[in-house]
Design goal:
Two copies of one chain form a homodimer.
Chain A lengths: L2 E3 L5 E2 L2 E4 L1 H10 L7 E5 L5 E9 L4 E9 L8 E7 L5 H11 L4 E6 L12 H18 L7 E2 L3 E2 H7 L5 E5 L1 H6 L5 H6 L6 E6 L7 H9 L3 E3 L8 H19 L5
Parallel strand pairs in A: 1-4, 7-8, 7-12, 8-9, 8-10, 11-12, 11-13
Antiparallel strand pairs in A: 2-3, 3-6, 4-5, 5-6
Helix pairs in contact in A: 2-3, 2-8
């Protein structure tokens, strides 16, 4: 059943008005009729099976039939702080990160980021990003759309990081040479409802200065397997591992 | 240090001749000089630090200085059998799957595959695929380049599957409704050097007939986390989880 995220303002009790792209999708793409069922997600994270009660050119009305009891969200809130990557890699990180359960994305201007996200174009860029995570949330049957915040500096990220329970950065060199906590060791101590901040460098990795600052501020350096991952693959490895450990191993009733 | 996979024929004892694209990369892209060091991978899976002894217009000679002791390969051999997906998704599966440690890829014609890989164009396609996995192997510092086989049918895959120790297919519906082995349960019983076959459906998933045949032939249905993953994300989730379990949890010395 197709799933739509409906803004709070369009819920009147158990009656929903669906407009814009979603109405277009229901009417023109899915060619739904009155009586057909869809899933509507509320911003509070709940989802309801709804029946279409009327359609016209650009608005669809639906009524809640039943609220769904689902556990499709990771038991923890994972934020991906990603060093600005080149090209359209951030699109891939958003789409795959959403499928894999991330709750928040922070683009971070780092020393070795080659691209600069132009201030004048940032509004248009953010609108595109919002569309990517909304569509990926619908496709993967998530109950929450991840948040994307405006780009920040490493100093701002460190300031922000006081709000997190567990802070990790993918830094192979560090993980190799010094006594360190392994990624699996850290994950095995995570408990439900904790906030996890995972920081990934851009193509060239973290500068030594950045790595030093992150360490001084409570970030643990980890390796994500023994192979060298591209910047856009690192967060996907980490999210899949978190899901596997918390949702598959811990949820394993063999 | 840059890494190159050198065909067996170009090794004469500890002397190596580097030709073609690799020579072009060393001379024109990296602008290496005599005396510079590179890593050369032998087809047997070993890698050597080598010193460039001469360069001319289109050939580079190098000599082995030291063989490297590396463990960057997964302790098991994972084959991804992927239902033919649309567009250029198979490119992404090959690139990311190689980074994440896959050893073999089998494209499989499935009931719900929408695309047909044209017989006349398959040679060109395979050449492009080979290039993707070679470059991804070099980039991720692997010692082995994954093998890509020609597309086969599900019947041929089942015939081929007798060579594997563990057979899994990602089939959410099955994993939901019946008594089943969890993915984590299966992974926790895998031992080093086993051959694992992981089968992923195309965009529309497996047909009931395909799922039935796979089950009858010893494939275990598993879910890969509670969210719905796109076809190109499923193998990445599974490979990251296998790496996390076998290389990070089992290799965890906290």
């Amino acid at each position: 059943m197709q799933r739509y995220f409906i803004p709070q303002i369009d819920w009147q009790g158990n009656e929903i008005s669906i407009k814009g792209d979603d109405a277009h999708h229901i009417i023109r793409v899915m060619r739904n009729q009155v009586g057909d069922q869809i899933i509507c997600n509320h911003q509070d994270g709940n989802a309801a099976i709804c029946e279409i009660t009327s359609l016209n050119q650009n608005i669809v009305h639906a009524a809640v039939i039943d609220w769904k009891a689902e556990t499709v969200e990771l038991p923890i809130a994972v934020t991906i702080a990603q060093g600005l990557p080149k090209g359209d890699k951030f699109d891939l990180i958003l789409q795959k990160g959403t499928e894999l359960g991330a709750s928040r994305f922070i683009p971070v201007k780092m020393d070795r980021s080659i691209v600069v996200w132009d201030g004048r174009k940032i509004e248009k860029k953010m609108a595109r990003f919002e569309k990517i995570v909304k569509e990926a949330s619908e496709q993967s049957h998530r109950n929450k759309i991840p948040e994307i915040v405006l780009p920040m500096t490493v100093a701002e990220l460190i300031h922000e990081s006081v709000n997190y329970d567990v802070k990790i950065f993918a830094y192979e060199e560090e993980a190799k040479v010094e006594a360190h906590q392994s990624f699996a060791g850290i994950v095995s101590r995570i408990v439900d409802n904790q906030k996890v901040l995972l920081c990934i460098g851009p193509e060239g990795g973290f500068s030594e200065q950045e790595a030093k600052k992150l360490k001084e501020n409570g970030f643990h350096a980890v390796r994500l397997g023994p192979r060298i991952l591209r910047t856009e693959t690192a967060s996907l490895y980490a999210l899949a591992s978190l899901s596997y450990h918390l949702e598959e191993i811990n949820g394993n009733h063999d």
